[in-house]
């Protein structure tokens, strides 16, 4: 029976802690604006352009640069 009393007291402390944190969040104004976050994702702030892609020649040059240098020096 003593375990039940201990569990009830611990659960009461936990509930009190959650109630305190909830009331503190309400008092700080965290739950005042519930409309803006749902609408904010519909508006784009800026247009994001993808980075310029390399041409196949540039890719081959950068990849085989060391091999070409070795071939020209021998």
UniProtKB/TrEMBL annotation:
Pfam families on file: FixS
Bilayer-crossing regions:
6-23
| Keywords, alphabetical | Membrane, Transmembrane, Transmembrane helix
List, as start-end ranges, the regions of compositional bias called Basic and acidic residues.
56-74
Show the segment(s) annotated as Disordered. Answer: 50-74
Show the InterPro entries listed in the entry. Cyt_oxidase_maturation_cbb3
Name of this chain's protein: Cbb3-type cytochrome oxidase assembly protein CcoS
Q: Which organism is it from?
A: Capnocytophaga gingivalis
